[in-house]
Amino acid sequence: MTEPQHSSKGQSLAERLQGVTEALAAATNQADVFHVILHPALQALKARAGVVLLVHEGGNGLRVADTQGYAEGEQTLWQDGTFETFSPTEDCLKRHEALYFEHQDALLAAYPELTGPPLSVNVVATAVIPIFLQDRPLGVIVLVFTQPHEFIPQERQFLQTLAGQCALSLDRLALNTQFHQQAEALTAFVALTEAVGLNTDVTTLTQRANDVLRATFPDLFMSYYVLEEGVWVPAQLADVSEPLEQVLRAGLPQDTPAYQRAVQTRTPIFIDHWDCDAQQIPHTESFKAGVLAPYFQQGQPVGMLAVGRQDEPVWTQQHRAVITALWRSLGGALDRAEQARQLEGRAALNAFVALTEAVGTETELQVLARRAQEVLQASVPEVSVVYYELQQGLWKARVLSDNLTPEIVTAARLGFARDTPSFVTAVQTAQPVFADGWDGQREGISPADAYGAAALYPYFKAGQPFAMFTIGTMQRRKWTQSDRALFTAVGRSLGLALERAERVAELDARSRDLERSNARLEAANEELEAFTYSVSHDLRTPVRHIKGFNDLLRKTLALPAEAKAARYLGIVNTAAEQMNTLIDAMLDLSRTSRQPLVMGLVDLEVLITAARSELEPEIQEQHVVWSVKPLPLVLADHTTLRQVLINLLSNALKYSRTRPEAHIEIWAEERTQEWAVFVRDNGVGFDPRYTDKLFGVFQRLHRHEEFEGTGVGLANVRRIIARHGGTVFARSVLNEGATFGFTLPRPS
User: Fold this and answer.
1) Is 85 exposed, middle or buried (0-12, 13-18, 19+ CB in 10 A)?
2) Element (H, E) at 191
3) In the chain, at which end, N or C, are there fewer CB atoms within 10 A of the end residue's CB?
4) What distance in Å separates the CA atoms of residue 181 and residue 489, rounded to the nearest whole number?
5) How many CB atoms neighbour CB 276 within 10 A?
6) What is the C-alpha separation between 427 and 459, in angstroms, rounded?
7) Adjacent-strand bridge partners of 55
């Protein structure tokens, strides 16, 4: 090329540089800058293709930032990787000078290793121009030619000027980006600071921390994990691939290498050149660097902040400083949140104790609903609580929390229609209903349109709905699992309390009915006993008259009466005597019921000895073998208990007198709350089918001709023992003897 041609070429290149300068001033992103740089270079030098490669932030490799002149899929000399991928780029950066190869032999002579696989583009001439900002390497511009090319001084100056303008434009963009990032980060840090001071919800705090991080470094991904039963599970998860999300939601073992190392060091660990196989976390190939920062409570790991980077494999000092500061800020917020939760937990525990006590003692439904409201608001202060009862086809509020608007209070007290959708759903399912995404207009409750979520717990009486316990929140549109569990537990406790209150009301009503029945029965018994005593007393006079006139009649007959008349007179006299015996028994029975008991310690052995002595005259001709085992002291009325033992021993002697030798056994058994006393004989016994009749008045299982008696003795025994708070019993096999007994309560 001649000198005039060189001059003309230089003027043309200078004009192009003027256009490049103006275009770069308007560029707003790296893609615009690279297009402005490559396009005039290719046109001015008639190059086949060009590429811009930028240095990785770690400084140990290059990445392809932009290309021009290549069709899609064409093989090139360069690719993402280390400097050794294309050696001329490394040399030009090390030498801080451009390299020009005007024909293929020159390139291959300098770099014989480039004789690799055939390329889509036949590279003949090559220019490699470094991009520096002061002494800091930013990358290289590479132009390739399919024909030999002489790089004249004006072209070399043109390319170096392009590289310099590219460096300045990239620096300007970086400064602008950094300025905007710092502004966004400052705004996000302000939001995080406000959240730290005002919020105790872990999800909200971690979301604010994520906002800060993304505002500072948009290419980073942050997640927050909690340790549950030895497994790290996400509480707040970044937008990741579906396979990775499945792995993370299933939980990572506590001994996952990166997580275990972070827990051991108790500080953030920054991992350059992330290796998913070495870290044992599948489907994390897209991440090139990672950070794990642990949180502890009372010396135990409870949380983990995880940050991933996809564009570069190393962490810069700025990354480390920002992430570490964020980790500390979030840690302080989480500590305060835990303290607040503990305080809320104590308040909630106190409220639960009050509800538990109310469940056991309180019967007023609205008081119980108020206790349930206090439990919920102690745990989740933001919720509003309303307890409704169904009256006249409307759900009317009976208990309302203080954080409701006057419009809602008025509407709730007036009542909502029975067919309100959410109320209908709760009644139909007979289960707690959680209405995420609450719509007050759809429900027909426009005053409650500000609420984002609601929950309802229905209650039933005799299969029919009668009450509804509800909560709502304006701060969210979805209930958390802990919210659902808390509401269900409180709703169930309130349900048990309502059921108990209903049972108590029923028992009170029944108790009043029973008291009235007992009063009527007691009056009737008193009247019956008075009647029995009166009748028994009044019957003595006619019986005495019968007996007296019968005796007079005998005396009137001067001569001995004939045998038939004498027999008739004897029958009348015997009947009168038997009638007197029955009257005496009835009077004894009546006196037993009316006589007050004088309770005291009674020695059963002494009482048995006295009873045997009293019965001795009646058994002069009967051979009796007594077997009396040690007997206890019991709390009883001495007089009436003596009457019980005389009756039982008299019965045993009477029904065993047909035996050549009567065997009477007496013993006692100590039980948990009572004494049991037994009297057993070897007499004629009785048919066990009629055991229930034995202790009834005038009930006899043997003919009077066989064994005398009135049938009142055992009835008297039953009545006396019942007044002592005990029971009577009898066992027998016909002709094999019988066992009678009773129980008496043991004094505490």
Assistant:
1) middle
2) helix 153-198
3) C
4) 47
5) 15
6) 8
7) 62
Q: Is-contact 268 327, C-beta < 8 A?
A: yes
Phi (first) and psi of residue 432, to 5 degrees = -60, 140
Distance CA 545, CA 552 (A): 10
Total residue count of the chain as it appears in this document: 748
Distance (Å, whole) CA 35 – CA 68: 8
Alpha carbons 241 and 285: distance in angstroms, whole number: 11
Q: Does residue 449 carry a pLDDT above 70?
A: yes
Residue 39, Cβ neighbours under 10 Å: how many?
16
Q: Is 390 helix (H, G, I), strand (E, B) or coil?
A: strand
| Partner residues linked to 625 by β-bridges | 663
Cα dihedral sign, 434-440-444-448: positive
Which tokens in the block code for residue 51? 């590429």
Over residues 403-412, mean pLDDT: 91
- In one-letter notation, the amino acid at residue 576 is A
**Residues ≥6 apart with Cβ < 8 Å to 743:** 671, 674, 675, 676, 677, 721, 726, 727
Q: Are 387 and 417 in contact (CB under 8 A)?
A: no
What is the distance in angstroms between the CA of the first residue and the CA of the last residue of the chain?
129
Buried b (16+ CB within 10 A) or exposed e, 348-368: beebbebbeebbeebbebeeb
User: 318 Cβ partners below 8 Å, 6+ apart?
Assistant: none
pLDDT (tens digit per residue) in 215-271: 778 888 888 998 888 899 888 888 888 888 888 888 899 999 999 999 999 989 999
Q: Which residues contact 529 (CB under 8 A, 6 or more apart)?
A: 590, 593, 594
- Residues forming a β-bridge with 395: 390, 416
- Kindly provide the residue ranges of all beta strands, DSSP E only, lying in 80-219, ordered along the sequence: 99-101, 125-133, 136-145
Q: Which residues of 94-132 are buried (b: 16+ CB within 10 A; e: fewer)?
A: eeeebbbbbbbebbeeebeebeeeeeebebbbbbbbbbe
Q: Do residues 117 and 23 make contact, with C-beta atoms less than 8 angstroms apart?
A: no
Is the per-residue pLDDT at 481 higher than 70?
Answer: yes
Q: How confident is the model at residue 377 (pLDDT cuts 50, 70, 90)?
A: confident
Q: What is the pLDDT of residue 592?
A: 61
pLDDT digits (tens, 9 = 90+) for 599-619: 899 999 999 998 888 888 777
Global confidence as pTM: 0.36
Tell me how far the alpha carbon of residue 573 is from its chain's centroid.
86
Q: What are the helix (H) ranges across 199-266?
A: 202-216, 242-250, 257-265
- Over the stretch 333-343, which tens digit does the pLDDT of each residue have? 676 666 555 54
